[in-house]
Every structure is written in C-alpha cells, then in structure tokens.
Amino acid sequence: MLWENVGGSGLLDSSKKLLRILYERNSMKSFTPENHWLIEQANDRDFQRIVLQNSLSNQKQEQERSRAFRILTNIPHCVLFKTRLKFFQSTLENERLKHKEEKPIVVTIRRNHLIEDGLNRLSSLKPMDYRKIIRIRFVNELGLDEAGIDQMGVFKEVYFLFFSFSFSF
C-alpha cells in the first residue's frame, strides 16, 4: 500500500499499526524467516540513488523519491539498517555543509550557574539554531573568560549535563 500509494487513509493507518505490532512481536521472538521484513526494491541501488540525490530532473524521479520517503518514514524496518545509516550520514553531511559558512552561536555560561544558565540560554534558541555550530564560553566567578584548550568547544560538557538534568525530572 505504501509502495504503490493506494488505499484510504484509515485502511493505511490500520495496516501500518498492524505491521508495526507484528514487527515488534517478531523482534522479541522471531517467527519469520531472516530478511522477511525487507522490501527488495527499497534496498537496491536505484532506491538509494533517488534518496541521496539532491536535485530531481523529472516527475517520475519526484514520485520515486516520494515513495522512498513514505517507506523510510512509515516502515523504516523494511530498509536495511546499513542503508538507513547511509541516508542519515548523508543528511548530516548536507546540513554540515549548509551551515559551514555561518557564524557560530556563542552561548555564555557562568561556571557557578551551569544548570541555570545552560537551561536559560539553550532553551531560548530556535529549533533551527541547533543545526548550527554552537560554541560555549564559560565565565568564572570573577566574570573572566575561562581559558580553554578547545577554543570554546566545550558544548559536549554542557549538552550532556543539560539533557541529563532535564530528563531526570
């Protein structure tokens, strides 16, 4: 149904739910042969080429790309993990290149108020800002910049602290 884009939305939604339930049950205790869930056409080179292609030249390619994204969005388990990983890495690389020339966002955080400043400053960013380069600048209790060997690249420190703190509530 997803491959050919047929069926009403109610039938399609019910089919996706049933398929997901069956796949999850099969993941716990396998009752199908190996590679049973894979769509052969979704794992060939043409499918990969269409998904990874940046510009499409005709309507047929646009329809194929639409089909590919319907499959990846609704039933990703029908595409090999290796193939999905390649798509993900390609998407990340495209985003990196898109934001490479932009000025990084500098977030200043007082070392004594790490959680408070981290939550306030990072939560005020727009969702699209998280795709850009974010630099963290720590300020000590005297208001002076902390010297760092990683050129303000301590985002990981704040990121892990910020998310581990925010999900612990």
Helix content: 40-55%
SS summary, helix count: 6
How many beta strands in the DSSP annotation? 2
Order of helices and strands: HHHHEHEH
Overall pLDDT, averaged? Answer: 77
Kindly report the spatial arrangement of strands forming the biggest sheet: 1-2
Main sheet, how many strands, which sense, barrel? 2 strands, parallel
**CA(first)-CA(last) distance:** 41 Å
Q: What is the strand content?
A: 5-15%
Integer count of domains? 2
Q: Which secondary-structure class do the elements indicate?
A: mainly alpha
What does this structure look like?
- By secondary structure, the chain is mainly alpha-helical.
- It folds into two domains: 9-98, no CATH class; 105-166, no CATH class.
- The chain has helices spanning 9-28, 45-52, 59-74, 81-99, 114-123, 155-166, and strands at 105-110, 134-139.
- It has a two-stranded parallel sheet with strand order 1-2.
- Helix 5 links the parallel strand 1 and strand 2 (134-139).
- The longest helix is centred in the N-terminal third of the chain and has 20 residues, at 9-28.
- It is elongated and about 65 Å long.
Task: Describe the SSE topology.
Layout: H1 9-28, H2 45-52, H3 59-74, H4 81-99, E1 105-110, H5 114-123, E2 134-139, H6 155-166
Parallel strand pairs: 1-2
Helix pairs in contact: 5-6
Task: Based on the model shown, name its key terms.
mainly alpha; elongated; 7% strand; two-stranded parallel sheet; 169 residues
